[in-house]
Amino acid sequence: MLIEVKIGALIMDPNSNTPIVVLKGVETENILPIWVGAFEANAIALEIEKIVPQRPMTHDLIRNLILETGFQISKVIITDLLDNTFYAQIELTDENQKVLLLDSRPSDAIALALRSDCPIFVEEKVFEISNSSTLSDPEIEIGSEEEVKTEDWPDLIG
Fold first, then answer.
1. How many CA atoms lie within 13 A of 141 on its CB side?
2. Which pLDDT tens digit goes with each residue over 18-29?
3. Which among 78, 111, 105 is positioned nearest to 10, based on CA atoms?
4. Separation between Cα atoms, residue 13 and residue 18, nearest integer Å
5. pTM of this prediction?
6. What range does the domain containing 148 cover?
């Protein structure tokens, strides 16, 4: 079963100094922290903050390429968690509603979803695996529904 999520926070892990994208269930209390690279976190933060770079960034280029080839980005799905590595797919549809699935890193899929204004989903089993592993951090706090924290690493933006 797919559970729709949104970005609840974008924070820095104080132990590893690595950015974390925290996904929160839209209609559930599910929380999923995903550790991401600095460049991917920057791409996500730029879109959250609606900062438009002078030239298209990689995720903008990918979105433009997909749209120019006649596809729409219908959704992204965090599909699995194996050996502490998350997996995702980007679902594309053409004008005939034919579906094409692309393998992706979750951070890239999330950055693309934000630029395409498409929903983000997580397979229910990913929450179950994450909750039973050491990836879950009870110290992660999610702000209000409208708040996405990026102030912990403003030096990456720009």
1. 3
2. 999 999 999 999
3. 111
4. 5
5. 0.84
6. 2-156
